[in-house]
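re the bet — no i am not wrong, look at it urself. input seq straight from the record:
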Amino acid sequence: MFDKILIANRGEIACRVIKTARKMGIKTVAIYSDADKNALHVEMADEAVHIGPPPANQSYIVIDKVMDAVRQSGAQAVHPGYGFLSENPKFAQALEAEGVAFVGPPVGAIEKMGDKITSKKIAQEAGVSTVPGYMGLIEDADEAVKISQQVGYPVMLKASAGGGGKGMRIAWNDAEAREGFQSSKNEAANSFGDDRIFIEKFVTQPRHIEIQVLCDAHGNGIYLNERECSIQRRNQKVVEEAPSPFLDEATRKAMGEQSVALAKAVGYTSAGTVEFIVDGDRNFYFLEMNTRLQVEHPVTELITGVDLVEQMIRVANGEPLTITQADVKINGWAIENRLYAEDPYRGFLPSIGRLTRYRPPAEGPLGAGIVRNDTGVFEGGEISMYYDPMIAKLCTWAPTRAEAIEVMRNALDSFEVEGIGHNLPFVAAVMDHPKFIAGEMTTAFIEEEYPDGFEGVTLGEEALKRVAAAAAAMNRVAEIRRARISGTLDNHERHVGDVWNVALQGQDFDVTIAADHDGSTVRFDDGSDLRVSGNWTPGDQLAHMTINGDPLVMKVGKVSGGFQIRTRGAALKVHVRTPRQAELARKMPEKVPADTSKLLLCPMPGLIVKVDVAEGDEVQEGQALCTVEAMKMENILRAERKGTVSKINAAAGDSLAVDDVIMEFE
């Protein structure tokens, strides 16, 4: 077995590989850019080698710099993680020439399967059903438009060397094909150093289901069942689960056997993933093969008990698989939510900055299941603009899907993140969405269910009453503490009342609290009551409460006269007042937000790539105004309505903060 492995990656996947290597008794070497000198993966590794400036195209994807780190450290093998150089055949060749093992497939398999154009041709020759499209290279935007017309709109423009949603655009007409071609090329060049683009038919209402395969160099190959990855945003997966709630055993077996046959046809070894589009009749079509470890591999590990990183290392060491297809079972259900540094209330735009608070739920047993959190950050660390915005992958396992969802709900409510925008409220909302609960989602789920973006969750009446009861009980605890404060007037005693008004989400509840040693009974004016207990004390930022025997987890902040509460995807200002205070509060005028309708504000910290208009130009609704790049993604900002540009405050190359004014309109 290897003595030392270098991880040619960063963030959570580098930390993930280090954990398994440590378990196997293998020393690890981290590489890092200037931006990552204090990163978690650097701290966890036994050694660390600096490889250059923050941009990936000057550090993490520069083969010569990574090879220098390999030589400097004396590592016998390299695990590439995902992204960066993980599917670059030139990197695998460089390692081979150096006599260093690549923890991944052979160069030939990467070349055949890692390139989306080549892999589709091989799949077609092997009789695998594929999505219609144009597999050749596309020279310019004019040719892209012509091909798109031939294939038929809508089409998907994809980077040949792409992954993780980078370099991908859907086009519904000629203008979008022309615009998307250039943006895809730019993103592909920046993220992968390869700007080749191909086009395929975009199949509407599909499910995205993938098969995990594992092969060794001795002719053995197995599939470890499937992962459902249909909930995506901008072609980037957000929620994954294993197994799929849609597949039956016959379809699973057919997809699995076809995936293994495809892998063997190209001499594949190591872990790999074959991705399919599956329609409503369970017909499946080959999309691509990812010749690397997938981001969402933990859900497969949770239902099979197989450590995929360990298997990759053993295969790279020349060992045969000790697992047969008959050994692969489906044990329970696993769900993964990707926590991104993206603000769901601002159209999921990237959010960078310092993590002033980062407290994930404890890994291990929770309720009926278990929690796993794969992460690469820490409290006080910084989310950089240079890399992918993923902070963590929160996974839960339980014997059934319903139980795994419930464990995930409580785990999400227990996850504390402050200092940046994040998508915790959004994924919490998905866990309560009827379509997700029923397992009836497609890749259009987010687009269809949140057509106007995510504006938060509106809780139902019963959920509101649960929060109101908890807030009333918590407020009573806080009032008792305030009543006991030292330095009060002599011969003066402050009494805490039993009658309160709780206002939240535009509703008022008049309640009466009857407290005892074990908790409080909160009675509502409609005659119903809820029993509240818990261990919250003033100052705690997380409240673990029990309402009528059912758990309620809330993120708690203090506001004047009440609490700021986050639970189940809802962000609530909860005011707990005496009846007289509530009467006066109703007479207070509401604060009107400032008018920004004549301003184009920068929606995220980023770099202005180009400005498409000039002062004095008349713009139409939907017209591109400028392009902002952040976290390797280009975002085109468009006019919301017809107007005239009166002033431009930013130019290409400028770095802007959130809400900086880019341009003004008459």
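see?? The mean pLDDT is 93. told u. also Residues 461-483 form the longest helix (23 residues). so pay up
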